[in-house]
Amino acid sequence: MPAAERPSGIEQQEARIAWGLVLPALLTILLVALFPLLWTVWESLHLHDLRMPWLGQPFVGIDNYLEAFRQPRFWGALGHTLFFAVTSVGLELVIGLWLALALNRAFRGRGLVRAAVLVPWAIPTVVSALLWRFMFEGQHGIVNSALVALGVLSEPIVWFIQPAAAWVPIILADVWKTTPFVALLLLAGLQNIDVSLYEAARIDGASAWRQFRHVTLPLLKPAILVALIFRTLDAFRVFDLIYALTGGGPGTSTEPIALYTFNVLLQNLQFGYGSALSVIVFLVTFSLALVYIRFLGAELTGSKR
Amino acid sequence: MSARKWWPALVLVLLVGTSAFPFYWAIVASFTPEARLFQDPSLVPTELVLDHYRALFTERSFWLPIRNSLVVAGTTTAFCVVIGALCAYALARLQFRGKSALLGFILAVGMFPQISVVSPLYLLLRELHLINTYPGLVLPYLTFAMPLTVWLLVGFFRQLPAELEEAAMVDGAGRLRAFWEVIVPLAVPGIATTAILTFVYSWNEFLFALSFTLGPERQTVPVAIALFRGQYQVPWGQILAAAVVATLPVTLLVLAFQRRIVQGLTAGAVKG
Fold first, then answer.
1. A129 lies in which domain range?
2. Of A101, A94, A181, nearest to B268 (Cα)?
3. Which of A101, A131, A292 is the best residue to mutate to test the B interface, defined by the most B CB atoms within 10 Å of its own CB?
4. What ipTM describes this predicted complex?
5. Whole-model pTM?
6. Smallest CA–CA separation between A235 and chain B, in Å?
């Protein structure tokens, strides 16, 4: 880099300018993100119930965390989140990869496809949740009518009163909204693969499956990993979709951890306990993010392209 | 052999159809009389009415959440793009110690779950009497919008050739003038794309808007729509009409800038 050859005075001046430019954004982030995060940790170590201000805010150590581990509803919420993440991200990756392979071969209609891909992704999640709720709603909604007409169901199902059935629209809505986006990420990865590798493989007599297995998959691994981890992080904080689609019901059988935390905080006003839940959600996502940065960080944050 | 040629086309048709159908169905339903919504649905609408849209803007005053969303998302975007551009320029084009750590930190903040800061932000906004106000939404929005803006802009600034500002500086312009007079004009498309994405993310945000507003006077569009359902009945016609209205501006923006948006989104994740 030419910077290393410059006299150090200019270098120092450049660093000063750089920090001056970075400062406003950095201060904003420290103030609105890092400081609140530390506050959550502090809050989680105290009893703080807004409905009972006379109790004050005594220090209770890790009691709030122990309380969470004792609550079946907490483990339920964690289980639902895990189930949602594994199922939806799994489906999105498989279908997304398949779509990306098809898109990579198509030469016409790319613009139309980009639109079809971007619009579901860009609309509010709450709206997509309500579109799917509407399609599954009622004895004579479109989904029930279609399934009965096709002979898949002998009679209509009320989707939102049985836990197992209620997961169907949730997973479908998420797959519908984000699979195209996953496909887009994978497509960008596919387009970086050198075409001559396939020609070489073909000359060696490799079948389409072997080309996919030994050329496409290994070279696509970074893109798959990025999509996987982005999506897992997203799935882990799922809130809007389930809030608007089932409200966590029937009962609490589809309630994810973020919704449980929200209810504890803003319905029950238990800020100490709710903060402990927040910290747990943060720790889980942060560990996932660390994996991400460990695998891909060098590539992404390196100053060279 | 021919099967290999047409399957991608078939997949495309399937993809476009699947993506579009829920929208089509919502649009049809938003013009269908409430009483007929759950009576043997037919794919081709037979009777169209404007009732739901009329009710939306008269009984529901839906222009109120639209105004709120415009103000909040607009302010957030303007602030983040200006402050974020300065930061992103330094991160993309200048040499200084701690740069990659800083970039990693900003990326990490962008990934952390919103729910983990709801409790302190609520207490803080309550203390400052900012619950149910515009600043009470813009401030929390900065937590996700600022890292997003910086991250996208770094990607766009890096794509510009380094010789540009070096040439300007040889001509005697300082760093900042080189930034303002050479880089910014060239980066306008990237900055516009970043602004659109930040706006879309802020327009769609739900958890903070739900947590930090109390009533219709400051509710944003997603919150207003989600809370339409009454105690005993769900006004589906109005909900879907609102969904169409809420989706329209975002859809138009995204369609107009689709190529650049895809570039910006995938550049951050997959370096080419």
1. 76-301
2. A181
3. A131
4. 0.90
5. 0.91
6. 11
